[in-house]
Design a protein that fits this description.
Length: 392
Amino acid sequence: MTPLSHRVPLLLAMGLLPILATTACSAAGPDTTTAAQATPAATSADQRPFTAAEVSRFDQPWAMTFLPDGSLLVTEKRGKLQHLDLASGQKHEITGVPKVAYGGQGGFGDVILHPDFARNNVVYVSYAEEGTLDTRGAAVARATLALNADGGGALKDLKVIWRQTPKVSGQGHYGHRLAFGPDGKLWISSSERQKFDPAQDMSGNLGKIIRLNDDGSVPADNPFASQGGVAAQVWSLGHRNVLGIAFDANGKLWAQEMGPAGGDELNLIQRGANYGYPIVSNGDHYDGRPIPDHDTRPEFAAPKVTWNPVISPAGLMFYSGTLFPQWKGSAFIGGLSSTSLVRVAFDGENAREAERFNMGERIREVEQGPDGALWLLEDGSKARLLKLTPKA
């Protein structure tokens, strides 16, 4: 009998992709799992080493980033960019945001600053956009942030510098997380849009980690640059749904990935590596059909941490502050279905879950503030922005 690892691409090629896609994940549903919900023990509120204070509320927030003056930009999935003055608590909408394809997992996504933002005021945003014939795909644009005296402002000279190729049907697995690396390059997570095989197809950029220059052009030293076309953008492939990318203190790129049932991952991203999806995964299809584990195909890069039961990861950051000195060098991941904040500890290139804090709500985003506090965004409508500081 043909092994499943070989039959999966064959089945997709035979036209069964729409059937498999509906079983793998709800195409229009939120970023959560439908099986193997996470139920591990987590630190309760009275045992936490921090207090969580509500600072503000947002409508379906997705990402946040701090400006040099300590204020905060927050994206809302329906298509708004909010500017929050933490000193006054005043919130103002930033105009000039691109039109987003809102629905399912789609909408306004990430927001980050150019490394030289203090000089050029350039920001980058990601979002889902409409295509033709009921198709959609993620896009990344850069613009100049022009704030006014009352805290409002606008995105000016907005220009799209990258798009998912091809645009496809469905409203799930966009990814579109953004980060700048120590090399000054722009990194983008491009998820596989619930279509499986595109993660292995170098004629498109779905299911890949992308590396670009800050203007959207392709660096000449990318691993597949000689292939030209879309392949030249690619740094790594074989990814499912990457909802967090971040660099550690040593300049290594890490990505957390929402897997199928029982297959969430934390990966160390290596140049030109193939992470195996959908041929291998440490999880299974949501309808119970098995997927071969990573250890059956050693040619594929294996995750450093897997979760089963799942945590449904969202957001990823490395802690470098002094407010929580015991956590310096740890990574933090928000948990959606697990309603948790997960701390990951490292020993060189090895990683493990070290602590899990029960937050009682789905956590969409986690960031470090200028003073070393941890900041969390809950998921959904009337979602709280929380500031975590050490207990007295």
